[in-house]
Amino acid sequence: MRGSIRAMKTVTTIRELRLATAAWHQRNETIGFVPTMGALHSGHCALVRKAQSLAKHVVVSIFVNPLQFGPNEDFTKYPRQMEADKKKLEAVGCDILFAPTPEEMYPAGFSTNVDPGPLAKVLEGAVRPVHFAGVATVVTKLLLLVMPDYACFGEKDYQQLQVVERIVRDLALPTQIVGVPIVRDKDGLALSSRNAYLTPDERARAVAVPHTLEDIAVKLRDGADFSATLEAGRARLALAGFTVDYLTLADQETLETLSAYKPRARLLVAAKIGATRLLDNRAV
Ligand code: AMP
Question: What is the rounded radius of gyration, in angstroms, for the C-alpha atoms of the chain?
Fold first, then answer.
């Protein structure tokens, strides 16, 4: 396998990262970048493989970004497993792992905030008001540090992908954003680092999320009543034990909520079971 012969170098400071990538930039060699928060699974590995297929060199970052967590969210208990992550990255093939501390990314006095505008206010943004400004700020900083030719993001976080594409267009950053399809478990549940929070009973119930989306997509394409179909989907998730934050059909680019079925739409859901909030989406 092409990836497995790479010797991975781990760097934790911006200075080391710049030194490690300087020669590639000087030689105009392509760089693919995959930003993550760690607790890596096969979904992250699919992004790394995509980056390998596009670029000569691959940089992965692992940084649990405090700015994108709200005050009552899971920042402190978010899974951190650096040694296991390093082994996975070495196996899949990565040249540089950038794993900075919060102080390295946000030294004392840090106060700049990237505001991604209206896209960040709907859906996830309506439930998590500081989230996308935190994502936008860290992704902008990471893209400016790595200066990759390609940066791979999962469709799992569909709104995040749209926000990042908006930033790159608006600020004319010289990186092509590449969306990678959602990697799912055998039963259909989208892989997520947060799935580790699920109890066995909740894990069994969690398949209701992808199954409900699939069902709604089929029904809407078949011409079923729009509001009744979405309402039945919400009821099905509630019956499975979920509190639904939103289950919405939205324009696939602007993410404006639709009140009738149309092509080029995306079905998006966020729903909580026990202590775990699950996100999923699919094209309709
Ligand atoms: P995270 O570590 O959760 O911040 O995710 C890092 C990147 O991996 C983001 O671009 C996510 O969208 C992507 N990702 C997470 N889970 C999946 C998945 N199941 N399939 C594809 N991409 C994913």
Answer: 19
Beta bridge partners of 152: 178
Q: Which residues pair with 35 in a beta bridge?
A: 61
CB 6 within 8 A of CB 93: yes
Whether 44 sits among the annotated catalytic residues: the reply is: yes
Give the residue, by CA position, lying nearest to ligand 1 atom 22.
154
Of 157, 180, 186, best ligand 1 pocket probe by most atoms within 8 Å of the beta carbon: 157
Burial of 242 (C-beta count, 10 Å sphere; 0-12/13-18/19+) = buried
List the structure tokens of 245. Answer: 């934050």
pTM, whole model, 2 decimals? 0.97
Quote the ligand 1 centre to 156 CA distance (angstroms). 6
Closest residue CA from atom 5 of ligand 1: 36
Query: Tokens 């900075």 label which residue?
Result: 100
Task: Give, using CA atoms, the residue closest to atom 11 of ligand 1.
Answer: 154
Q: 210: CA distance to ligand 1 center in Å?
A: 16
Tens digit of pLDDT per residue, the chain (284 long)?
444 467 999 999 999 999 999 999 999 999 999 999 999 999 999 999 999 999 999 999 999 999 999 999 999 999 999 999 999 999 999 999 999 999 999 999 999 999 999 999 999 999 999 999 999 999 999 999 999 999 999 999 999 999 999 999 999 999 999 999 999 999 999 999 999 999 999 999 999 999 999 999 999 999 999 999 999 999 999 999 999 999 999 999 999 999 999 988 999 999 999 999 999 999 99
Q: Distance from the CA of 151 to the center of ligand 1, in angstroms?
A: 12
State phi, psi for 104 to the nearest 5 degrees: -70, -40
Can you tell me whether residue 152 is helix, strand or coil?
Answer: strand
Pocket of ligand 1 (CB under 6 A): 36-37, 43-44, 46-47, 153-154, 156-157, 180, 182-183, 190-193
